[in-house]
Amino acid sequence: MIDPRLLAFEAVLQEGSFERAARRLALTQSAVSQRVKLLEAELGQVLLVRSKPVRPTPAGRRLLPYLAQLRLMEAEARRALSPRQAHGPLRLAVGVNADSLATWFIGAVAAVVREEGLVLDCVVDDQDHTHALLADGEVLGCVSTRPDPMRGCAAERLGVMPYLCAGSPEFRARWFPHGLTRAALEKAPAIVFGRHDDMHEAFLRRHFGLDAGQYPHHVVPSSEGFMAFAVAGLGYGFIPEIQARAHLARGELVDLAPEREDVVLYWHHWQVQSPVMARLAGAIAEAAANALGDER
Fold first, then answer.
1. Which residues of the chain are modeled with pLDDT < 50?
2. Helix intervals (H) in 82-145
3. Which runs of E-coded beta strand occur in 51-140?
4. pLDDT tens column, 238-260
5. 3-state class of 239 per DSSP?
6. Partner residues linked to 219 by β-bridges
7. Distance of alpha carbon 279 from alpha carbon 198, whole angstroms
8. Range 269-280 burial, b when 16+ CB lie within 10 A, else e
9. Closest CA to 33 of 60, 186, 20, 187
10. Domains parsed from the chain with CATH numbers
């Protein structure tokens, strides 16, 4: 069983106050406060900022991923020790970028999810920022572009996801009749995924000297919506090659630039994994090896 002091710490953060945490745990507010203070005394660190709402200190934030790992270990232990009891599906939170989720990720985890009786909580963010979800304890593993694992974790290279700059044939004829030029790019509407997506901006700055704010753009925070915008001729943008292949073959999209933007993906997880997480990690690595390139 998880230490009651850790449960009190977790409840206060999730509820935002000691009072609401006490109601959730069926304890007095004083008892919850005492458990948190005992935990802080043992660790020699202040874990909570007593504000409204309560928030974690840097030390408290570092504790969160370990608590998430403990919760998973406890749930798996219960299932292993009493398999005949109905424990319900095992919930796993994973961080994944939208483009992976829209292409290869679901096929990677499908068999494990079915056979292990899992429910996945897919937390979607840009691949450059999913690493922070693991550090904050929001997920137990994540697809990320960062090659360096945080303390206590490991990072496994999954492969390379190439992106191509694409738009519809009609869009190219209207906006880029002479190819990509600075003058045309200052007027043609681009498509970007969201505030964390800097691929398009980096491309225009590197090749045409254009900075953010110097070209119009749609913001479409959905891989499927992004593709629909491009196919409808509403803009141009960077699309994963594996997602664009069928549309290119049907003539719905055309490649606008000769070079690709390669994104190297990694799977981050705890070094000491539970059996289910280890199996999930293995399935993700195997599927990524088949779906993605791995040019080094």
1. none
2. 98-102, 105-116, 130-135
3. 55-56, 90-96, 118-124
4. 999 999 999 999 999 999 998 88
5. strand
6. 192
7. 33
8. bbeebbebbebb
9. 20
10. 4-60 (1.10.10.10)
